[in-house]
Amino acid sequence: MKSSYKLDEARETIDIWRGNRESIGFVPTMGALHKGHLSLIERAKRDNKRIVVSIFVNPLQFNDKNDFDNYPSTLEQDQLLLDEAGVDLLIAPAASEMHPQPMNFAMSVKSISDVYEGQFRPGHFDGVATVVAKLLLLVGPSRVYFGEKDIQQCYVIKRMVEEFHFPNVIEIVETYREASGLAFSSRNTRLSDASKRIAPSMYQNLLRAAKEIRDGSDPATVINVAIEKVAEAAKREAVEFGYDYVELIDQNFKSVAQYSEGLRIVAAWTLDGVRLIDNLSV
Ligand code: PAF
């Protein structure tokens, strides 16, 4: 695998592949790679000749400086994993090159960024859209792969690509979970042992809630029961639990009160201050 820390150098490599009309699959990441990322790479390998991965912890998408400062960084280990996974090119640029200062241009995401992740992380989706747009222009991939765990991010990027007529195909890959049901996330490394024991309980309880909703129970009631169960589990482990939202939504991220086809439950919660998100189909 080739590693490029300079954008020019990455572009040179990619230009050769493009000249040869080789399909390029692209997996943008912020590093601290885990099996979820590897599942995106596996999927990309099935569909493309060349695989490009980026590692860039994008300062623009962190509304909380503390969260940015504490974001895990494991570049050497990541490189080994990517090499083993058969990736052709890693792009790991410096922030000063990715976002030259002063920044005069940025993406501005409208209404979808007022709800859920957008509401609780002001500016987050503007930052994500800005860096993904830059990366897509740089890499020019045939297909780009995103994990369904960040379902609202998937929605934002799909809309951006449609509205700006980007030629890239967006592929959404199912969330990769531990046997317990806990979704793989770079943030899991920040959970204490006690938090790790109860982290899967949100998904487990929401899975039950989803079934009850399908079977005709009142969504708000069963979702509240699920939240209560997680709160009780956290209390037993002396872990501080809080949540930003746990809601039933439709495909346009509108909160809904009654069951119909195509709904999801989205959730964001904290365990001793570490913030996790997840979602599942109802
Ligand atoms: O999902 C992520 O890791 C990031 O939001 C992304 C898409 C790499 C943009 O920085």
Please, could you describe this protein's structure?
- The chain is α/β, with parallel strands linked by helices.
- It folds into 2 domains: 2-173, HUPs (Rossmann fold); 186-281, 2-Layer Sandwich (Pantoate--beta-alanine Ligase, Chain: A,domain 2).
- The protein has 11 helices and 9 strands.
- The strands form 2 sheets. The chain has a 6-stranded parallel sheet, with helices on both faces. Strands 7-8-9 form a 3-stranded antiparallel sheet, covered by helices on one side.
- α8 links the parallel β5 and β6.
- The model has no long low-confidence stretch (mean pLDDT 97).
- The protein binds pantoate (PAF).
- Pantoate binds next to β2 and α7.
- Residues 28-30, 58, 61, 128, 131-132, 150, 153 line the site of pantoate.
CATH architectural designation of the largest domain: 3-Layer(aba) Sandwich
Strand line-up across the major sheet: 1-4-3-2-5-6
CATH class of the largest domain equals Alpha Beta
Helices and strands, in order, run as: EHEHEHHEHHHEHEHHHEEE
**CATH topology call of the largest domain:** Rossmann fold
Question: Major sheet: size, sense and barrel closure?
Answer: 6 strands, parallel
Which structural class should the secondary elements be placed in? Answer: alpha/beta
Strand content: 15-25%
Number of helices: 11
- Ligands: pantoate
Regions with pLDDT < 50 over 5+ consecutive residues? none
Structural shape: globular
Mean pLDDT: 97
Count the beta strands. Answer: 9
Helix content: 40-55%
CATH homologous superfamily classification of the largest domain: HUPs
Radius of gyration: 19 Å
**In angstroms, what separates the terminal alpha carbons?**
40 Å
